[in-house]
Amino acid sequence: DPQEFPTYMTCFEEVFELSVDQNSNLNGRIKENKKFLATYKNIKLNFDNCFKELEKYAQGLTPILTNYLEYTSINFKKLEDTATPDSLRDLIEKFQIEDERVRKLQRKVNIGIFEFQLDYLLDTVTNAPKELLDKLFTVIPVILVKKMNSLLNEISHYMKKIQINVNDVESFIKLKKAIEECGKEKGQLENESDEIRELINIVNNHKDIKMQDYDLKLISELSGVRSNFERKFDSMTYFIDNNIKKYRGELQKTIKNFDNRIKNLIDEINDEEINNFHDDTTGPLLLLEDKSRQIEKAVENKKIYQQEEIDIEMDERELSNFENLDTLT
């Protein structure tokens, strides 16, 4: 403190006012002066305290430097593929808080007898949070558009799957499987839709996030496509629920037809043309191979339809005349 300077100088004035002869030891006389020693210790103590305060202040800047290094190392390109609405909101909040913190820093700070200059530090960190926030606001629309396009493709894929005209038991089973597959994925589609809604809310809550007109149209397009898919899915589910009894009967008939087909093929194997061969074995063997292939194909198809019979929860099943199909084959 400059006001304390006269106090520090008093001891020196008293020392130099002393009569000093040629044989006197000025250095020794000064060291023996009690006022000088007290002032010396006081100065040293104040220096120590100033250094401690300086160190304490510098330590208070550590979080700013740590955050600067962390935030400037963010890979925004990778963020496009990994970010969630929660993580984006978290980053926005962190950048905004950091921006307020660094702008409160002064370029010069007086700590005791020291003047702490922060020009280099402030030139480095002051604009970083705002620049990072601007960059994030540029990336968010990219993330949103990516997610919307991805969901549009998924919905279009499943929409094609359930657009089946049912005119027989095979097409009914195909539709039922498609509805079941879509049903399993609906939860994931809902999660993706929720993420997109949250991202849209983030955009709406921050006026500095700008979106292109065609991207805004994509939001409306996605909403329409999703609504159409929901209506189509509900309609096809209703159709299955109301026609399952009808196609149970159709499926039962189809399985019975396979039984009859297998029986007829076995009867053909016992045909006189095959059993009454003489020296010529080539023709009957070729015929046997052909009938065997037909039986194997019929058995394979029957197994498929038997599984479908289970899948549509058939209450009354007609037992097959050939229970051990593997042995028969």
Question: What's the short story on this structure?
Answer:
The protein is mainly alpha-helical and 329 residues long. 78% of the residues lie in helices and 2% in strands.
Q: What sequence of helices (H) and strands (E) makes up the elements?
A: HHHHHHEEHHHHHHH
Mean pLDDT: 79
C-alpha termini separation: 107 Å
Tally of DSSP β-strands: 2
| Helix content percent band | over 70%
How does this model look, in words?
By secondary structure, the chain is an all-alpha fold. It is built from 13 helices and two strands; from the N terminus they run ααααααββααααααα. The chain has helices spanning 5-17, 26-32, 34-60, 62-72, 76-82, 85-103, 119-125, 128-162, 169-205, 213-269, 272-275, 282-311, 325-328; strands at 108-111, 114-117. The protein has a two-stranded antiparallel ribbon with strand order 1-2. It is elongated, with a radius of gyration of 44 Å. Mean pLDDT is 79; it is low at 314-329.
Give the arrangement of secondary structure elements.
Layout: H1 5-17, H2 26-32, H3 34-60, H4 62-72, H5 76-82, H6 85-103, E1 108-111, E2 114-117, H7 119-125, H8 128-162, H9 169-205, H10 213-269, H11 272-275, H12 282-311, H13 325-328
Antiparallel strand pairs: 1-2
Helix pairs in contact: 1-3, 5-8, 6-8, 8-9, 8-10, 9-10, 10-12
